[in-house]
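Hi R.,

As promised on Friday, here is the backbone we talked about, encoded as structure tokens. Could you run it through your design pipeline when you get a chance and send me back a sequence?
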């Protein structure tokens, strides 16, 4: 399972650090490509985590996404 940490800036200006996991993939580069392609769609939705909370991220509200090698502080 590959897991990455995303720093997401919303259109409102708010910023979130979220964890996204892809169970079938082991390469983090493929996970990043999956996130980008999913959020680029009109109906793009990601199930992510912020700590212990489930956060559903809708692509239409996202202004930018950063991926860092070490991840953000959650």
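Update: got your reply. Pasting your designed sequence below so it's all in one thread:
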């Amino acid at each position: 399972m590959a897991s990455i940490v995303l720093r997401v800036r919303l259109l409102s200006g708010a910023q979130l650090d979220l964890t996204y996991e892809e169970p079938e993939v082991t390469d983090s580069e493929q996970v990043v490509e999956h996130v980008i392609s999913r959020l680029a769609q009109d109906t793009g939705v990601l199930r992510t985590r912020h700590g212990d909370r489930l956060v559903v991220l809708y692509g239409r509200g996202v202004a930018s996404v950063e991926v860092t090698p070490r991840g953000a502080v959650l």
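One thing I noticed while checking it: The radius of gyration is 11 Å.

Thanks again,
M.
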